[in-house]
Amino acid sequence: MIAPDLRLTFEGVEYTGVEILSAASPTGPVMCCGTPINMDDMEVVGTGTNHNPDGDVSVEVYRPKADATTDLYTFHPAQTVEALGEPGGTATGPATWTRWTAGFAPPAPAATSGTALTEDSFKGLMTIKDVETLLTSKVTLKADFRELRDMAEGVNPAQVEKMDSWYQMTIDAVDGGKGMTFSVIDFDSTSSAQDHFEKMKSETPGMQDMDSPIGDASIEIDVNAQGIGSMLVFIRGDKLVSLHTAQPEGQRPLLSLESLKDLADLVASRL
Residue 78: CA atoms inside 13 Å, Cβ hemisphere, count? Predict the structure, then answer.
């Protein structure tokens, strides 16, 4: 079992500890948990910050030499501790590795129709890990969260008067360029959500109804030109969800329209 709230920051991306694995020893694996990892199979990729209850600590960060994974690993040497029930006696705890995953979080209790969408429930609708499973090549991703309702209200209060909340997350390649944007607007009623949906449909050239609708109704467009990838919008109850990709001219989008549909289905199942 791994302790909750293990956090690691590396190159500006926050990772969550998801698994503790044993380290192989010269005389064979010291089994405490999981499949043993041999240090010879790992390589240092930099230094990260381990956020623990006693304070932040700098740690070496590893990745497997032969595995194109975005997960990170940290090594913990064997430690000698006092043996329980044996005054003055000692015991050696096994060396271990911790595996860290970017943006990992169990789905938070997501808001259903008629329930206010909170920051926590929004963040539980989609994670970096969900996006990584759909990538066709290795890309290191970073996420950025924004609360948009208050920002928009400061510019024009009228445009958000029927919105209870509005959150956005951008997921981009760390090396810049392509990425995707995911947003959810929680309206004050189902009719307000439907009105906004119809407005987006009429004001976005090329938007088409989907053959197999997601949620109560959904529309899509596949552009892949002039830096625009594809876009998908659906409503479910009083919430409007949008996903779209963008990339530099001449590059392939981070995700195809079909992959956006897979993500939209996932989000709809969590709403």
Answer: 15
CB distance 61 to 41 below 8 Å: no
Q: Which of 53-67, 117-131, 176-190 has the lowest mean pLDDT?
A: 53-67
Backbone angles phi, psi at 165, to 5 degrees: -160, 160
Confidence of residue 140 (pLDDT cuts 50, 70, 90): confident
Q: What is the pLDDT at residue 97? A: 84
What is residue 2's three-state secondary structure? coil
What is the rounded distance in angstroms from the CA atom of residue 151 to the CA atom of residue 203?
A: 23
Query: Does the pLDDT at position 1 exceed 50?
Result: no
Of 194, 171, 169, 167, nearest to 111 (Cα)? 167
Average pLDDT score over the chain: 81
Contact yes or no for 163/186 (Cβ under 8 A): yes
- For residues 62 and 58, what is the distance between their CA atoms, to the nearest angstrom? 13
Phi, psi of 229 (to 5 degrees): -90, -105
State the residue for tokens 């590795």.
Answer: 97
C-beta atoms surrounding 144 within 10 Å:
11
Q: 23: which DSSP letter?
A: B
φ and ψ at residue 259, rounded to 5 degrees:
-70, -35
Global pTM exceeds 0.70: no
Compute CA distances 142 → 13, 36, 180, whole Å.
6, 29, 11
Would you say 176 and 169 are in contact if contact means Cβ atoms under 8 Å apart?
A: no
69 residue type, one letter: T
Question: Would the pLDDT of 150 be above 50?
Answer: yes
The partner residues of 54 in beta bridges, in order of sequence, read none
pLDDT band at 35 (very low <50, low <70, confident <90, very high): low
